[in-house]
């Protein structure tokens, strides 16, 4: 028996990587939504908030991967869900237009994330 092999996770442990990933997504979306307020990183406190948000996002993403989440699945979910949320925030709060290209792009992102997750589960 391999002394370095990890035992099978309990049901609660299998949820843990997804909680870290959810936290990473929230932190990344928070940071990205504040990018415009930094004015090219020339304003101190918005810049600190953005850099802190991205730092938290990457730390939590690393924790999800450290808990046996596949890198490809983690990144697909992180970038896909983050993209969808940022497009929604842009439309709802930042007065960005809803265009056919955005709708098609989000649909393709969703399709890609679904395909990667289905392929990664086998």
From TrEMBL:
- UniProt subcellular location: Cell membrane
As for membrane topology, the entry says: Multi-pass membrane protein
Task: Name the domain of life this protein comes from.
Answer: Bacteria
Keywords, in A-Z order: Antibiotic resistance, Cell membrane, Membrane, Transmembrane, Transmembrane helix, Transport
Which Pfam families does the annotation name? Multi_Drug_Res
Query: Which spans are transmembrane here?
Result: 15-36, 48-66, 72-94, 101-120
Give the family from UniProt: Belongs to the drug/metabolite transporter (DMT) superfamily. Small multidrug resistance (SMR) (TC 2.A.7.1) family. Mmr subfamily.
Report what the protein is called.
DMT family transporter
Q: What species was this sequence derived from?
A: Nocardia jiangsuensis
């Amino acid at each position: 028996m391999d002394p370095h092999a990890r035992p099978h996770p309990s049901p609660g442990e299998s949820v843990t990587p997804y909680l870290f990933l959810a936290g990473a997504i929230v932190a990344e979306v928070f940071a990205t939504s504040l990018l415009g307020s930094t004015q090219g990183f020339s304003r101190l406190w918005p810049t600190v908030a953005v850099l802190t948000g991205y730092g938290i996002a990457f730390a939590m993403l690393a924790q999800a991967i450290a808990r046996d989440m596949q890198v490809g699945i983690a990144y697909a979910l992180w970038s896909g869900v983050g993209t969808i949320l940022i497009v929604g925030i842009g439309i709802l709060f930042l007065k960005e237009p809803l265009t056919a290209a955005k709708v098609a792009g989000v649909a393709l992102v969703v399709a890609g994330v679904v395909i990667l997750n289905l392929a990664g589960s086998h």
